[in-house]
Amino acid sequence: MEVIENLIKFEIVKSNYQATMVQSAVLGFPRIGGQRELKKVTESYWKGGVSTEDLLTKGKELRAHNWKLQKEAGVDVIASNDFSFYDQVLDLSLLFNAIPERYTKFDLAPIDILFAMGRGLQRKATETTAAVDVTALEMVKWFDSNYHYVRPTFSHATEFKLNTAAGVKPVDEYLEAKALGIETRPVIVGPVSYLFLGKADKDSLDLEPISLLDKVLPVYKELLSKLKAAGATQVQIDEPILVLDLPQEVQDKFAVAYKELASADVPELIFTTYFGDVRPNLAALKDLPVSGFHFDFVRGAEQFDEVVDALIVGTNKTLSVGIVDGRNIWKNDFSKSTALISKAIEKVGADKVVVATSSSLLHTPVDLENEKKLDATIKDWFSFATQKVDEVVTLAKNASGEDVSQKFAANAASIKSRKESSITTNPKVQERMATINEALSTRKSPFPERLAVQQTKYNLPLFPTTTIGSFPQTKDIRINRNKFAKGELSAEDYDAFIRSEIDLVVKFQEEVGLDVLVHGEPERNDMVQYFGEQLDGYAFTTNGWVQSYGSRYVRPPVIVGDVSRPKAMTVKESVYAQSITSKPMKGMLTGPVTCLRWSFPRDDVSQKVQSLQLGLALRDEVQDLEAAGITVIQVDEPAIREGLPLRAGKERSDYLNWAAQSFRVATSGVENSTQIHSHFCYSDLDPNHIKALDADVVSIEFSKKDDANYIQEFSNYPNHIGLGLFDIHSPRIPSKEEFISRIEEILKVYPAEKFWVNPDCGLKTRGWEEVRASLTNMVEAAKYFREKSA
C-alpha cells in the first residue's frame, strides 16, 4: 500500500510540473578516490617515493573521474575546486597569500608550503637545500563534522594577494573540466566565513580577523573576475558560519562584502549555507546582491518557510533545496523529499528550483558498489556519494515530470524494509535503558577523596608521564591483521603476534621512562571501528572511507540497531600487558559519544538514546577491566565537543547533559581507587564541559595552541590535566628544550601538582624513529622539572 501511495504522489508531481525542468546540483564530491588513491599518492610523495609531477597527475585523474561520473549520472550543476590535496580552507590561504612568515623563509615549492602549513615540516640540510624546521598551523573540526580544517592564521603583516606561483587553482580546475567538455560551478569559501573561521597569529593577538575584510575583498574580486573571464557563469560561494551564533558586527559584514563583490564584473553568486538553521542570522541575508541561495533542509528543515518567504519569494533568485543528506549514509526517503520539493516549486516556480545535496558529499564514502560483503538487507538501506548523486538526479527528474516510477517504487520498498526490520530493535537493550538514573551515573565519592586513595595506590612522581594510547601501526601489523581477517593466519598465531607487539611496546616505554603505560593497541584497526565490530547493533563496510584530515581517512561503522556488548572486548590484551610490567597499565576504551559521533548514526532514533546505549555497553567493559586488575582506565571522548550543537540554547544544554551522563554511565561503576582518564583532541573545549564528566585525569590536544588565555581557562580546573606537548600529526621532533619551554609557559598558570606530561594524541600514525626521539625528549623535560621542584 505504501509503495502505491508513493507512486500516486509521484504521478501528482509529474502532472503538475512536467513542463518545466528542475535542475540537479551536487555541492562537492569526495576527493579521496574509491580505493583511497589520493592517500596512497600523497603519502608516497611525503616519503619521496613519487615526484611532484606524479602527485599532480594523480590529482588530475581523480578530478576527471569525479566530474565524468556526475556528468554521466545526469547532474546539471557539478562543482569544481572541491578537490584538495590536504584541505580546501588551507588551499584558499595559500592562494590568498595568508602564509605566516615562518613558512616563506624557506625555498619551498607551493605544494610543499601547503603541506608544511598542514602538517609541519622538519628536514635536515643537504648539499643543495637548507634545513627546515617548522610546526603546522592549528587544525580544528569543521563545524560539528568529523572533518578537520586548517585554521587560517593572520597577522598585522598579512598581505592578501593572489599567489599565482602554482597557478590560480579555482580557475585552473574550472578550465581543466571545461577541456573535458564538462561545465562546472567553481566553489570557494566566502570572505566572511573565511575570516571568521581564522585566528590571529601569536604575534598579533590584538587582531580581530574580521577586521581584515576590506583587505581581502579585492582579492576575492580579482579571483571571481578571473573565473568569469575563463567562462564560469556561476560560482558557489560557501558561507557556512551563518549556522553559528554570530556577533552583530559579523552579521553586518555580509552586506558590506557582497555589495563590494557585486560591484565587480563577476559570475552569478550562489550563496550557500549548510549544517543547520540560518534563521537567527536571517537579517544578514536580506537584500544580498546574489543570484540564489542554497539551504540545508536536511539539518534545518524547520527553517524552510521563513527563509524562502524572506529571501526568495517575490524575487528572481534561485532556491537550491539541500535535500539529499551530505553527512550520512541512509537512503533518501523520496516521498518526504518530494513533498518538500513540491512545496518549493509552489512557492517560487519550477524554473527557480534546484534539487541538491545538503552539503558537499565530502563527508560520505565514495561508492556503495565497492561493498561486496555487506548483508544484502542492510546494504539496501544505504546510499554513498555515488548513489546520492543518482538520488539528486532522480528527485530532479521526478519534479520535472520525467518517468522515474521504478526508482520511486524501489526506494519506497527500501524505506519500508528498514522501518519494519527486527535488526533495528533489541527489547533487552530497551529494558536496560529504563534503569538509567542519577545514581548509576555518579562515582562513589567526589574527586578529592578518590585522589587521596589513588595517590597512595599508584605513588606516581610529580609530572607523571604517559601517552594517549596507540603506538605506530607498522606495515607488519597491518599485514598480519589482514591475514587474520582473510583466514590466512590462525587465531592462535595472531594472538601470539599481538602479544609480541605488546612486548615490544611495553619494553620500549619502560626504557624511555614513562610512568603510566599503555599496551599500544596493535590489535586495533580504528578507535571506533574496533569496538563497533564487537558490539551488537553495528554494521561495517570494507571501503566506506571518508577523509578526516590530510591523508587521514576513517571508515566509520554504521549504527543500524540497538547497541549492546555480548562479551569483553579489551580485557585479554590489557591483562597481558599488565602481566609483563610492574608499572600501571591503562586500559584503553573509546567513549560513548565518540563511538556515536565517529560512526554513521541512526536517523530513526535520537542520538541521546544511541549514546546512552553505548554508555551501558562500555560500563560492562570498564567493570570487567577493573575486575581483571586494570585499575587505570582511559575512556577517550575526542568527539564530545564535535557533537555540540552549533548554537547556544536548550538543544546545546540538553546535549551537554546527556553527553556527560553517557560518559559517567560508562565510568561510574568502579571503586575510588580506579583512576578514570579521558582524552580530547582538536576541538575548542570549555573546561565546564570537561568538568561535567568527573574524570580523574584528562589530556587535551594543546601543542598548536598559542593563546595564553586558553591555558588560563583551565587554571581552576579541579581535577588533574595533561595539556598535550607535541603534535602527533606532524613528523617533526621537538627538542628537550622546546618541551621545557612549553611546560614553563603552562606552569605560569597551572599548578605543577596537577599537571601530567603527554603528547597531543595517540602515536598510531607516526614512525618508530620519530616516536622514540619525541618521547625521550618529553620524558627528559619532565625529569628536569622534577629535579627543579625537589
Automatic annotation (TrEMBL):
5-methyltetrahydropteroyltri-L-glutamate binds at K39, N146, W598. Residues 463-783 form the Cobalamin-independent methionine synthase MetE C-terminal/archaeal domain. L-methionine binds at I468, G469, S470, E521, D636. The keyword Metal-binding applies. Its cofactor is Zn(2+). GO terms for biological process: methionine biosynthetic process; methylation. Its EC number is 2.1.1.14. Zn(2+) binds at H679, C681, E701, C761. L-homocysteine binds at I468, G469, S470, D636. The keyword Signal does not apply. GO terms for molecular function: 5-methyltetrahydropteroyltriglutamate-homocysteine S-methyltransferase activity; zinc ion binding. Residues 24-346 form the Cobalamin-independent methionine synthase MetE N-terminal domain. The active site is at H729 (proton donor). InterPro entries: Cbl-indep_Met_Synth_N, Cobalamin-indep_Met_synthase, Met_Synth_C/arc, UROD/MetE-like_sf. Binds 2 Zn(2+) ions per subunit. Transmembrane segments: none annotated. Pathway: Amino-acid biosynthesis; L-methionine biosynthesis via de novo pathway; L-methionine from L-homocysteine (MetE route): step 1/1. Keywords: Amino-acid biosynthesis, Metal-binding, Methionine biosynthesis, Methyltransferase, Transferase, Zinc. It is an enzyme of class 2 (transferase). HAMAP family: Meth_synth. Catalyzes the transfer of a methyl group from 5-methyltetrahydrofolate to homocysteine resulting in methionine formation. Belongs to the vitamin-B12 independent methionine synthase family. This is 5-methyltetrahydropteroyltriglutamate--homocysteine S-methyltransferase.
